């Protein structure tokens, strides 16, 4: 079985790799969410060609393998003058990949905001900007938390694919270690257990967050209006 | 951009796409079998079976597919089964898919009204035929959209088996672009082929769904 001396020897590299994994994941999720949110907003504009383009973008990203997208960005990029380092390409790739899914998640959340709330805000004289910020986005975020968490767990798993374009993340370091020590099977088994745990932790934290954010849906809140509409939907 | 590059590579890419398609189909078929068995075992096999099934589902949904693939690829020789990469890949895709499929069926079974199996019991159906004649056919019908979606996901996931050297679409694109130094054109072409296959699958799914609704 796995020799503990090996862990001491390769510990720093593995730890560094884990750092890169977390960096890619975190930055990828942020870019994905930001881009997805912008795409969702642009889709609400009454400009038909823009909607088609965004829809095509989402369909293309969701219809092709993540690995092909990475290869296009990392190996194909230099042909059009886009020279990226592996890690940058990995983060950008994760972000682009995630953005299509997040855009759809946010769109569903946007549509689920009760029309009456928006109309009420309009009749109170709120501007579109503040309706978005104070009415739509909060309601949208709460209703889409499960989907967002799920997508973040999926992106956790996708970071492993980055090792194929030589991003020095955990999987890559692990494969280096496996190749140097010949303890291939043990290392991969260890890695499987580690990722199993990691994805479980992400999902658990997500469920906690969901419970925390939706507390007002089940308990009667002092502001009758918000709890009323919310429970009616739930 | 040089389109002649794509045209030259197209026969190879299409040939590789065929490999991608049938590897994914075999993976999905294996996943179906495993998924149904796991689902039925978890529902009617007692607590031990339910727990074992739960661990299986949790593991194969929680661990990245690439790691599962490498695990199976390196594990089989260790326990004395020496199989070509292709077989290990199909096994990995099937095992991963089985975990998702069993959850799809679980959801679908919950959607079959409880009164139906009670009615079958009252009519004296033996336990086995309640499954094969009442529950599973309906669960299948309910889960068709999810299953087609699963097929599309698996087809995309099958690009990962390029890592163990199976000459499917992704691997072939890698090989070609390594020899002609035209990665942009080749990967674009590969992407378009994946997109075309997935769109066709989605269309097929809609047709099957419509057909089943008529029944």
UniProtKB/TrEMBL annotation, chain A:
SUPFAM superfamilies: MetI-like (SSF161098). It is a multi-pass membrane protein. GO terms for molecular function: L-cystine transmembrane transporter activity. This is Amino acid ABC transporter permease. InterPro entries: AA_ABC_transptr_permease_3TM (IPR010065), ArtM/GltK/GlnP/TcyL/YhdX-like (IPR043429), MetI-like (IPR000515), MetI-like_sf (IPR035906). It holds the Pfam family BPD_transp_1. PROSITE patterns: ABC_TM1 (PS50928). Its main location: membrane. PANTHER family: L-CYSTINE TRANSPORT SYSTEM PERMEASE PROTEIN TCYL (PTHR30614:SF0), MEMBRANE COMPONENT OF AMINO ACID ABC TRANSPORTER (PTHR30614). GO terms for cellular component: ATP-binding cassette (ABC) transporter complex. It is found in: Cell inner membrane; Cell membrane. The chain crosses the membrane at residues 20-42, 54-74, 86-106, 135-156, 176-198. Residues 14-206 form the ABC transmembrane type-1 domain. Keywords: Amino-acid transport, Cell membrane, Membrane, Transmembrane, Transmembrane helix, Transport. Belongs to the binding-protein-dependent transport system permease family. HisMQ subfamily.
Automatic annotation (TrEMBL), chain B:
Keywords: Amino-acid transport, Cell membrane, Membrane, Transmembrane, Transmembrane helix, Transport. Signal peptide: none annotated. SUPFAM superfamilies: MetI-like (SSF161098). Residues 17-205 form the ABC transmembrane type-1 domain. It comes from the Bacteria. PANTHER family: GLUTAMINE TRANSPORT SYSTEM PERMEASE PROTEIN GLNP, MEMBRANE COMPONENT OF AMINO ACID ABC TRANSPORTER. This is Amino acid ABC transporter permease.
